[in-house]
Amino acid sequence: MSPYQLPPAWIALVLLCAAWALARAWSTPALAFDEAEQVLHQQWLLAGYGPQPPLFEWLLWSVRQATGMSVLAALWLLKAVALSGVGIAVGWFVAQLGMRAAAGAVAAWAMTLPLLLWDAPRTLTHSLLATTCMAVVVGLSAPLLERPERPLSRRRWFGLGLAIAAALLSK
Predict the structure, then answer these.
(1) Using CA atoms, how far apart are residues 17 and 21, in angstroms rounded to an integer?
(2) What is the mean pLDDT of the chain?
């Protein structure tokens, strides 16, 4: 298997998150407080939105511009991508530590945490994006755990910088 090919368990995780997005879209027309706030804020590109940094609103605005989706469809798509990103990053971290067989199970376990399973998709927009970014930071840092004496590649350092910056702009 190529290192860039997703194992079936991870594909199932992405499909689960897509199913969540569809279920959320069909469940109720009412918006949670956080969703209503995003619908309002994504109309303008600003340096910040109240007490929250701007990355989620910038991403939401970009998805809408690129796809022409309604704001709610783009919001739920972005949340589903962030939610599946947590599971994929956690599974990737475990796979890099030499436990490829357990990666899917660990990714699924991470998705059963109440914060991710129930609260994040409904109300924790910025926290979900920050969690995804930090899971990517952990995944990119995996080689440091196995061989701390061996330096990271420039690509890994660049990725770490981007993921940390995205986390800071998320929450």
Answers:
(1) 6
(2) 83
CB neighbour list of residue 120: distance below 8 Å, 6 or more residues apart: 79, 83, 127, 128, 131
> CA-to-CA distance for 48 and 68, rounded, in angstroms?
24
CA separation for the pair 81, 75 (Å, rounded): 10
Work out the number of other CB atoms within 10 angstroms of the CB of residue 27.
8
CA angle 160, 156, 75 (to 5 degrees): 50
Based on its alpha-carbon atoms, the radius of gyration of the chain, rounded to whole angstroms, reads 17
Contact between 137 and 164 (Cβ < 8 Å): yes
Does 102 score more than 70 pLDDT?
yes
**What does the block give as tokens for 81?**
């991508």
pLDDT score recorded for residue 72: 79
Compute the distance between CA of residue 135 and CA of residue 24 in angstroms, rounded to an integer: 24
pLDDT of residue 168: 95
Q: Answer yes or no: pTM beyond 0.90.
A: no
